[in-house]
Amino acid sequence: MFSFSSLMLLPLFLQCVPAIAAPESTEDDARLRERRATYWAYQPLVSVAPSPLADGESSRTDIDRFVMRILDDAGLHPSARAEKRTLIRRVNYDLLGLPPTPEAVDVFMADESPKAFEALVERLLASPHYGERWARHWLDVVRYTDSFDSRATAKTDTIEIWRYRDWVVNALNDDMPYDRFVASQIAGDVLPRPDGAFNRDGLIATGMLAMGSWPQGDADKQKMVADIVDDQVDVVLRTFLGVTMACARCHDHKFDPFSTEDYYGLAGIFFSSSILPGPGMKTEGSPILHLPLAPKEIVTQRVAEEARLKTLAEERKNIIAAARVDFASEQMGQTGRYLLAAYAGDTPETSVNEPPLDADVLRRWVAALDRDVTPALLQVEENFQQTPGLLSRIDTEATPTAVGNASGAEVRFSGITLPDKSITVHPSPTEGIGIGWRAPVAASVVLSGRLVDADAKCGDGVQWSIVYRESGTERVIAEGQFENGGTSPINIATPFAVQAGGQLLLNVFPGNGHGCDTTQVDLTITSDTGTIWDFVGEVLPHFGERSPWPDSAGNPGVWWLYRHAGQSLLDPVLFASWWAAQREVEEGGADSDAIKKAAAVIQAAVDTARDDTASSLRGATNRWADSGGPYWLESVSDPRLDAIAEEIEELNAKVAQPLDRAIGIQEGGVPDTEYAGFHDVRVHRRGEYTNLGDVVPRQMPAILTGTSPRMVTAGSGRGDLAQWLTEDCDALLARVMVNRVWQHHFGEGLVRTPGDFGAQGQAPTHPELLDYLAARFIESGWSLKALHRMILNSEAYQRSSNATEAQLELDPENRLLARMNRRRLDAESLRDSLLFVTDRLDTTPGGPAYVVLDTPRRTLYLRTVRSNTSTFVTLFDGADATSVVPRRNESTVSPQALFLMNHPFALAASEALASTAGAATSPVEAMYRRLYGRPPTEDERTFAQATLAQMGGSDPTEARAAFAQILLSSNEFYFID
Known about the structure:
The chain is α+β, with helices and mostly antiparallel strands. Helices cover about 40% and strands about 15% of the residues. The protein contains 35 helices and 25 strands. A hairpin with a 2-residue loop joins strand 11 (about 460-470) and strand 12.
């Protein structure tokens, strides 16, 4: 049996607080003592011997002697023992959640020993599937979920909570004493292991307290912490003791003897604990603790190693940055020389500059001086959207895109409308797309046209600009924007001069949601001589040909479509003299000295900008030292970097394997809040943290402990709480768990309100039997498997579910246990059975949850997302992961039948069953034995043959699948007798 004798030796990191004297007696104490003395749930276990054995009843169990006494008093006769085939199917589902195999049925049927059923129970209790089946029952009452919300981040979601689920499975398979099972979930992180090692499993077990249902994104963080505590108080008392205290958060309990002081005495324990690393930002969901599963010294070492890695990375960054600053500063002084070398066509191999110029820098200057920030869209796709006459031009990536419609009709697709004889453009997520026009002659021009959103139902509007570029200089002629579905006219009526070779660039830029920024473009340029250049009219006939395209007069290279590749490295102001000198030289108006003078002007301006932090050119020259700029130092050589790289490699090898983490709780209130540390709390009048009353010592309500209030002795008090629950409350703790086990074997508990043993709940139908079983449960060392044996080997459990007229008349709800209750398969057993009977069930245990319903693993491992209620499990009345579920609802609705008739998962089961059975000598016999654990009757054989013949046609496999679906949808498969 689990002992708390070591609690006084809690780890040194726990802060001890002095015990607080119990408050003086009040009139309420008398009321509490009276309530405890009279209400059955708070009484010590009553030791009542079962009825004496009558002649011939030597094999009757103690359970049956209690049950028979009540049946005799009521004048009821019990039903006969169920058939062996019924019993093996019943107990298989009860202990494993799976049907027996035909082979297991044959073995049990052939065993005529009076101990055959006992041996069967032992085999099933030893199966690893036992823990999986009973873990699901437990997860219902602790509101288990694999995820809070499918939209949550790893930081704010319970991504490691599967470890808690697997801990429950393993604990049940190992028959962990129930008192230790309880204590571990309350305080496993502070309870030491007998060998003194790190209590990894104990920390995982506290996940029960960390996966509550509370408003995670609440902007009122103080209220959020109080809500978390309320959830923890509620789940602890309802799960372990079957009592509710949540309403005492605001006022004294209306029905049960719990005051607000009782509530806040218990709540203080959880206010002094935390499942959060901090409250988080008010506008964000709060992060939750992802606790490392390693001893403190290993965690400390890992933190130090990771901190050292960050320090080294920062040191490396600073060394490289300093080297790049020094390099750029040195090279800036050589800008004029680089310009002259690039202009002369020098390469690093042919340059004769002395001292020599840097080869990489020179290459970059050559590229910068030649760079085209308007690269043409060269790739063409004909019959775009499978429409003849619709052509698309794209960049090397999927976007930007331009589409021309010469199909002869309006085209619509994906919400986009393309009029006939039109061109539309569509930007990329980060870059614009544009129409370029290169002036074939010098002239004065005006512009007209429009931009139209081609997708009025989607998007966030469009931004645009028209820029004139000449000799490297640029100026904005017009710009604008329009809302989704809108139109923007282009109307530049004041003539402006363009030189031959000058470029007009119409740019369309991405909105916030570029996916809907398809824009129809019309553009007309008219010169002072009357010449007209029409973008659509001149470009559309040549849209599929290589660009740039000629105008209608045959001038080459006038129009092109381009990707707006960003800002040039060459500032227009800084390089104005350079381009002017270059143009003069090309036109014969100056000699090469003009280029040298321009280079000197630029060098002087660069030198000034380097010395003057306020210079308007400072930003332009700084860009040259950025990645992609000519003065970017790609590789830095420094002996310090070699040493840092060596140390980083060593540390990376140490931290390569991340520490396992778990969702759980830790000592001390939520950091960075007023609850940080250990402390008692004030009563929140009406549940409002802004309306505080007196401080209440952390304690367990006296009505539950049976003595004066028990005070906290160490840390948060969760260790003390675990001790109170398992020692002072052992009677109620045992009653509640015995009742849960009984409920899952009989369909109803001895107390038919398993989640409420309080005044609003029902009294036990067999109070003496309940106490007897609770006492034996404790005496067995809190062994759940021993409890199963007692119940399953009783006549009460092994009775037939067939009811007599007298039973239905005198006890229609079967409260007196004269027969077994017929039960329906729950969601998990139904899905697992569909896989199991078709030989498709993957029995691999544990691990992270899977997402896809078709995955052939047990449903226990199917991912539960609290925000998603449209699932298979929900359809078949699975547990609501937002609350404590002591008993599932049961509904019969048409979507359940429709699922079994039409869903691909169910249809796949039918096909697999037909395929497996098809290999047998008698497929019909094989299907009946797999599904029902019995051979078909003669009538069923006749029906099957007639049905298969009717469905057969030319494909007997398809007929068997249809017949298999009938059998899988039957009540005999869906119910347990």
